[in-house]
Design brief:
alpha+beta, BirA Bifunctional Protein, domain 2, five-stranded mixed barrel, 15 helices
């Protein structure tokens, strides 16, 4: 639709609105007594028992309009789907003429009875109707034509991805099938919450505004508190506060939270994202692995009726147990050499051999992470626990009980991307201080994502934290996987976007 046509339609709609108000009709009333959804009627109407639907009140947005002189048909769409409405001139008297002031996009309420048309379509025969909201700007409803071969041709389809993300409200109207993704997202979060609650673990809330950010290696967003006259940070993770609660005597706490990281945006990253973190006292990362297997297996079976899902034409099985592979064994498998004792310069040479460009002054941990992400990770299609990371990559994880230089950590990868991250949590305050100090040295060298020393957290560890297993799951990525979506923006209702340029 070009700009001039759009402007003409807006002018006409405003004139219709003014006319309705002039004759005493409020096009924005306060309520409507809706008794039935479209789906409820379509699923339950029976020709043998039409009396069950002799008096229904339905409401929704007009999506099609077909005026035929003494009769008019339209389709309205509510949250559950679409249903046809039939208006007959000799039954509606003066209100029939007001139909000419309605447009696609307007929201109406209809009172009537249900019948089946000669064409076999279940329809509401309108006895009364009222305008519930006059739409002042057109919505991009696709026009469908059928060619000589019977193929459907769709015009003006609202398919531009960026515009759909910006105007999600229009996307939900015009492409109602995407509601499945967000309903499924809600079910996934609800299932996880119920799974944890049933085991006695407590859902808690921790600060979003933090004087010291921590729990991950990432750049924060900074804001200013006027009353205290201090800078605060939007949390990048809730790990350190949840561990404080374990110190305080809770033995199982979790939070499903919004986190914020001031970093790049791509199909796997949004600066505002949803994460789950849980910490259970007296457990280690072996126990957490088994819990994650059980959680995800039962989640998939309960929501989808099978242990197998399809993602991007791949069959992915969540049958227990998941595969377990040590990180340095995977490096050896895909690089054909042992990198465990390599220096930073040697790792850069290995990366170049595999045509990877490594930025200058990266730490050993960052170089290993780059190589792993580019060379190893894409091969991890079926659920795989990658275990036993180098200590440099994991400043909050406990040293490995039998492997020098490693920590007890795993990440879960599915279809080549990370879903979960877990540790046997570091609870020795002396070791934790040394790790923080090493992070400070990296920060001094220019690593803006290195952690800051958190003295209050160290004090909490000195009070004493029991052995603890901790887990983080990226909810957005999990939803992407389970709903077969290719971008994180497809599973976030309002993803972050660059502001539109002024027209």
């Amino acid at each position: 639709m070009d700009t001039s046509e759009l402007n003409d339609q807006k002018i006409r709609r405003k004139e219709e609105l003014q006319h309705l108000e002039k004759i005493g009709i409020n096009p924005f009333p306060y309520n409507f007594n809706k008794t039935h959804s479209a789906k409820e009627i379509l699923d339950n109407f029976q020709d043998e028992q039409p009396e069950k639907f002799q008096n229904v009140c339905v409401a929704g947005r007009i999506m099609t309009f077909r005026r035929m002189g003494k009769a008019t048909f339209c389709d309205i769409q509510d949250e559950s789907g679409r249903i046809q409405i039939y208006f007959r001139k000799n039954e509606l008297e003066d209100t029939y003429e007001l139909l000419k002031y309605l447009d696609i996009g307007d929201i109406i309420g209809v009172e009537g009875f249900v019948f089946r048309t000669k064409m076999g379509e279940i329809t509401v025969h309108a006895k009364k109707y009222e305008i519930l909201c006059k739409s002042l700007t057109p919505i991009p409803v696709p026009k469908i034509e059928v060619d000589e071969s019977g193929n459907k041709i769709i015009h003006d389809q609202f398919s531009d991805k960026e515009l759909r993300y910006r105007r999600r409200y229009v996307d939900l109207i015009v492409n109602p099938d995407i509601k499945y993704v967000f309903r499924t997202r809600a079910k996934i979060i609800s299932y996880i919450r119920n799974y944890f609650d049933a085991r006695g673990w407590l859902e808690v809330e921790t600060p979003i505004l933090q004087p010291i950010y921590g729990g991950a290696t990432a750049r924060p967003f900074i804001t200013h508190h006027n009353a205290l006259d201090i800078d605060l940070y939007l949390r990048i993770a809730d790990e350190l506060y949840l561990k404080r609660l374990i110190v305080g005597g809770f033995e199982g706490v979790y939070e499903i939270s919004k986190n914020f990281r001031n970093e790049g945006m791509d199909r796997m990253h949004n600066p505002e994202f949803t994460a789950l973190e849980i910490y259970v006292a007296y457990k280690d990362y072996f126990w957490v692995m088994e819990m994650v297997e059980d959680l995800l297996n039962s989640l998939v079976v309960n929501l989808f009726g099978s242990e197998t899902i399809t993602y991007n034409d791949k069959q992915i099985s969540f049958r227990k147990p998941f595969e377990r592979k040590k990180m340095f064994d995977l490096f050896k498998e895909y690089l054909n050499e042992n990198v465990i004792d390599k220096t930073e310069s040697e790792l850069v040479s290995i990366a170049k051999k595999h045509e990877l460009e490594i930025p200058n002054n990266l730490s050993k941990a960052k170089i290993l992470d780059e190589i792993f992400s580019e060379i190893v990770q894409p091969n991890l299609i079926q659920p795989t626990f990658v275990t036993d990371y180098p200590i440099e990559m994991s400043p909050l994880a406990k040293k490995h009980r039998s492997e020098k230089g490693l920590v007890e950590r795993f990440e879960l990868f599915v279809n080549g991307f990370e879903i979960a991250n877990a540790f046997s949590e570091l609870n020795d305050p002396r070791d934790q201080r040394e790790r923080f100090e090493e992070q400070a040295r990296l920060r001094a060298k220019g690593d803006e994502e290195a952690m800051i020393i958190d003295e209050d957290f160290l004090y909490a560890l000195e009070v004493g934290m029991p052995p603890t297993g901790g887990l983080g799951i990226g909810i957005d990525r999990l939803v992407m996987l389970l709903t077969n979506q290719k971008s994180i923006r497809d599973v976030i209702l309002f993803p972050q976007m660059r502001p539109e340029s002024p027209q």
